[in-house]
Automatic annotation (TrEMBL):
Presence of the UniProt keyword Signal in the record: yes
Segment forming the signal sequence: 1-21
Top-level taxonomy: Bacteria, Pseudomonadati, Pseudomonadota, Alphaproteobacteria, Rhodobacterales
Keyword terms: Signal
CDD domains: beta-trefoil_Ricin-like
Claim: Signal is one of the keywords in the record: yes
Official protein name in the record: Ricin B lectin domain-containing protein
C-alpha cells in the first residue's frame, strides 16, 4: 500500500511518480478463460504472496495475501458476468461463493467471500494498470475505488477497496495456473 515513488528494478532505482495516469477506465484487461484458475498477487507484496481465503475463526471467508502454497484458496476462477465485469470465486469455496465488498459498518470496503448473486459489489472490472499490472474495481463503487491491501495492524495483508492512487497494493498480477474447473 506504499506510494509508487521509487522502485528498484534490476539493481537500478527509478523514479516513477507522476508517470502513471490515475484513470484506467479506457484501458481493457486481458480476456480470462472462465474454466481456468488463476493466482492473484500484488506488486506491493510480490509473487511470493498470493490472495488466499481464511479458513476458520472470526475471519473465515475473508481474503488475505498469504505465502504461496498449493492450497485451493489461492486458486481463483474469473468468470464473465457481462458488460465487461467479472465474478471471482475460489476452488476452495466453489463457484457459489464470490468475492464481494462489505458495504456498511466498521468493515466497510473490506473484501469478503459471500454467496454469489447479482450484487454490484461482486461485479469486478479488471483494467490495465501501470507497468503491466492490473487494477480491480467494482461496479458498485466505480472506477475511482481500487482493490488495495492493508499494510500492518490486525488486518495486515487483507484486501480493501480504497481510492485509486499510485499505490503498489492496488497493482495486481493475475497469473494463469495449470488447473481447470471441470463443470
Amino acid at each position: 500500500m506504499r506510494p509508487v515513488w521509487t522502485k528498484a528494478l534490476m539493481g537500478m532505482t527509478i523514479a516513477v511518480a507522476g508517470m502513471f495516469a490515475q484513470d484506467s477506465r479506457a484501458a481493457t484487461a486481458p480476456d480470462f478463460e472462465g474454466q481456468r484458475y488463476y493466482r492473484l498477487s500484488t506488486m506491493f507484496r510480490g509473487p511470493a504472496m498470493s490472495l488466499d481465503i481464511v479458513n476458520g475463526g472470526p475471519k473465515t471467508d475473508q481474503p488475505r495475501l498469504a505465502s504461496v502454497s498449493g492450497v485451493s484458496g489461492q486458486y481463483w476462477r474469473i468468470q464473465p458476468a457481462g458488460h465487461g465485469f467479472w465474478r471471482l470465486s475460489t476452488m476452495f469455496r466453489g463457484a457459489s461463493m464470490c468475492l464481494d465488498v462489505v458495504t456498511s459498518g466498521p468493515d466497510r470496503g473490506e473484501a469478503q467471500l459471500a454467496p454469489c448473486s447479482d450484487f454490484n459489489g461482486q461485479l469486478w472490472r479488471i483494467t490495465q494498470g501501470e507497468m503491466g499490472y492490473l487494477r480491480l474495481s467494482t461496479r458498485l463503487h466505480g472506477p475511482s475505488m481500487c482493490l488495495d491491501v492493508f499494510n500492518g495492524g490486525p488486518d495486515d495483508n487483507q484486501p480493501i477497496l480504497l481510492k485509486c492512487g499510485g499505490y503498489t497494493g492496488q497493482l495486481w498480477h493475475i497469473q494463469p495456473t495449470d488447473s481447470w474447473e471441470r463443470d
